[in-house]
Amino acid sequence: MQKVKAVVAKSKGAPVEVVTIHVPDPGPGEAVVAVQACGVCHTDLHYREGGINDEFPFLLGHEAAGVVEAVGEGVTEVAPGDFVVLNWRAVCGECRACKRGDLQYCFATHNATQKMTLEDGTELSPALGIGAFAEKTLVAAGQCTKVDADARPAAVGLLGCGVMAGLGAAINTGGATRGRSVAVIGCGGVGVAAIAGAALAGSSPIIAVDIDPKKLEQAKAMGATHTVDSSKADPEIEIAKICSAVYEGAMGADIVVEAVGRPETWKQAFYSRDLAGTVVLVGVPTPDMVVPDLPLIDVFGRGGSLKSSWYGDCLPDRDFPMLVDLYRQGRLDLDAFVSEEIGIDDIEAAFEKMHHGEVLRSVVVL
Ligand code: APR
Ligand code: ZN
Ligand code: ZN
After folding, report:
1. CATH node for 167-310
2. Locate the Alcohol dehydrogenase-like N-terminal domain: which residues (predicted)?
């Protein structure tokens, strides 16, 4: 057991606190990781607000990179000294989804069996089974994906959640390739990652839609070929115009990624796709939101698919090393997602900035 500094949300809505926690030595199948960097994600704020579940206290942070410090019995995936990106999809290999080959839908992903605790022994619930706003954290060995040790922790740690979610929504879920058009509605961290993914995949045109002109500028820097300010123009009409100028007769984009998580923008996505196109919902709706009223004939008439994307349908051990390699080659600008590096005491300020859309990502560096 060791004592380390960590960021904990103790009760619903209360500001987070930096406290000392106890991290057990790794048991069978577990690893202790010395965290080097961890991004601040919307999900951390949702945990703090009690929007995910009531299992307080939470150990926040889940978008992280670090070095494996120790491993428990039977661990072969990683060894002490390995530089890893943490993931929340350590697949079980045994559930029905895994058995039929759909590992990205695994129903029983692995986390550490032992619990980290507060000093008084209260068990902590680590965010997404990770809990990486901490000098050290305990995870299942399968949650560690070894990547190129020379990569910048603050940049590659972001693959652990938001950037992977966006990139994967475009590529893995949406099937972005060359010869296909992609539109992305909502250009925050997740949306611009989808744009970067579409660009990596060679898609064109790549249309960024947002109501904030600053976000549209950012989207261009990440590879958008066109932008639509949907506070001024109708995105359905604009997307159809842009796509039909390239692909004659196109009624919309082949793939439309919704990265806001609201019924109105999902409806825009629905009507912005071409015949047989794909809508990918990656923005996270709140439980009270409902599917907008749509004529069933429109669902029938357009064909294609209406999908949602969890974690960009990624397989961490397949996707993280590849994306780190593309980053190292200069083909994926992960540094552009790091708006600022902050200390472990600055998380409340980072939540505030995130809430006001001032940053793509604040990253805690330890
Ligand atoms: N139309 C177009 N864009 C919109 C609209 C709208 N009606 N409303 C908001 N947006 C834009 C914002 O201007 C912002 O650029 O959507 C973007 C949302 O970005 P962020 O708040 O930075 O969120 P992000 O981290 O990208 O996550 C997107 O996924 O993880 C979830 O909770 C998260 O639901 C959020 C979504
Ligand atoms: Zn499984
Ligand atoms: Zn996240």
Report:
1. 3.40.50.720
2. 27-148
User: Whole-angstrom Cα distance, residue 154 to residue 156?
Assistant: 6
Give residue 94 CA to ligand 2 midpoint distance, Å.
5
Q: Which atom in ligand 1 lies closest to the alpha carbon of residue 189?
A: 26
- ipTM score for this prediction: 0.98
Is 2-160+333-365's fold the same as 167-310's? no
Asked whether 261 lines ligand 1 (CB < 6 A), one says: yes
Q: Is 51 in the pocket of ligand 1 (CB under 6 A)?
A: no
Output the DSSP codes for 267-323: HHHHHHEEEEEEEEE-S---TT--PPP--HHHHHHH-SEEEE-SGGG--HHHHHHHH
| Residue ranges of domains in the chain | 2-160+333-365, 167-310
Mutate to test the pocket of ligand 1, among 190, 207, 356 (most ligand atoms within 8 A of CB): 190
- Closest-lying ligand 1 atom to the alpha carbon of residue 285: 34
Ligand that lies nearest to the alpha carbon of residue 128, given by its number in the listed order: 3
How big is the CA angle at 196 (ends 192 and 201), to the nearest 5 degrees?
145
Q: Which tokens is 90 given?
A: 């350590």
What's the whole-model pTM score? Answer: 0.96
How far away, in angstroms, is 187 Cα from ligand 1 center?
Answer: 6
State in Å, rounded, how far the first CA of the chain is from the last one: 20
pLDDT single digits (tens) 224-269: 999 999 999 999 999 999 999 999 999 999 999 999 999 999 999 9
Domain 2-160+333-365 = CATH 3.90.180.10 = yes
Q: Say whether the peptide bond before residue 57 is cis (omega within 30 degrees of 0).
A: yes
